[in-house]
Amino acid sequence: MNPSTSLRGSDVLVAFSTLLIALASPLSAADHPQLGQAWTRNQTSAETGLADSFNPTNRQNIRWSIRLGTESHSSPVIANGRVLIGTNNGEPRDARHQGDRGVLMCFHESTGELAWQLVVPKRTEDPYLDWPKSGISSPATVEGNRVYIVTSRGEVVCLDLAGLSNGNDGPFTDEARLQSPADQPAIPTGPLDADVIWHTDLTRDAGIWSHDAAHTSILIHGDHLYLNSGTGVDNTHKKIRTPDAPSLLVLDKKTGRILARDDENIAPRIFHCTWSSPSLARVDGKERLFFAGGDGVLYGFDLLPKSFQTATPIPRIKATWKFDFDPEAPKDEVHRYNSNKAVSPSNIYGMPVWHEGRLYVAGGGDWFWGKNNAWLKSINPSGTGDVTPTHLIWSTPLGRHTMATPAVQDGLVYAADSMRVLHCIDAASGQTVWTQELKGEAWGSALIADGRVHIGTRRGDFWILAHSREKRVLHQIDLDAPISATPVAANKTLYVATMKTLHAIALP
Fold this sequence. Notes:
The chain is mostly beta strands. The protein contains three helices and 36 strands.
């Protein structure tokens, strides 16, 4: 067992026993390689046989628990026998990497042993470009043996899922320089380091202005990567330094080259930052990409042709569909409303979800700087042009703010808010079916899996409720630290990440 995994005492015995069980009983192949269900982004899972309760203290239904850093805001993904999650370097796994860093950790799914890690230095020009100790907050996306991630530095990186164990694949081979602060000598690579295939700097190559921490879940379609750029305000929170920066980007997944960007001039209207990732839907017989901009508007784009090649200058694509999530909000000189809790633009943190011909989107006043209003809305995704006056199906108030990506199944929609409430809403009518008061604010989203709803809060409490029109709390437990992540289910296992620990929860 590699000591860098920080397994100690009873943890070693648990991990060893788990390995014997895994060898005797192969798991199913129900991986979870990106945040949300396939390309619809729905927060649901088809997994069954999950544990309906757990307790890390007495190891009840704990397959393994592994320490992360001291701040972990990323949600885990599981693919091809590996578990990947972003964190910081608060508890270094490699003594050569000291100080504040962004880290993507890759664990063996069967044991929780560390396979490799990507370590990137923090940007030092301004703390608001790469917020201290926040680590890598973006969830990874895995396809085959390739991992795609947006780092805390605003870089898109393609990695080999095997790490350096099978050699340095290239074409990028200077991992030593990439993982080291610019003013320090390059740290030579070791067996625990990531193998970088290519990397693209969005600040240099796309002209963005990073803010706080990038949170981007990359969507793969054919040979193309679709992602939000992470561009936002500067350190005053009242100025856009790069008004021509893109909000939506398309990259070549094989090379990292930027193929296209949006042409919607969103940047000047961004109230805080661009944090919502794109989703796909099948509308009027063809696929359409939906993206929530930092200006509180939902945009629909046609996908690039599969044969699309790079061009200079970078092509700009126009939205073919628009829906203003908050049409009554201010549209001009938006930063005059900074910290105005009564009137301000809206922001959307979570992703649009497509389900049975409808879009479901949660959003409202910016959590940190905006008004105290939020809603869950159901929207008709068909047609073209500005559909704001005609395509709202229903709108249901939430608490003051929300960061939720909706979870939709069996005619019910779940979304939590900053008022410490989980809402269960009828998908057809928008009527509230029931609410559950939580102990803390929810930064992650609810997950529907195995007939149950799972959600954690910033206070550290984790809830399991029945997925039903009748409210039934099945399990509630206080964990060791705040929870920012969305729980994930894969291969008969529920993964719950706190700020400090990742728990793999499964029946014996």
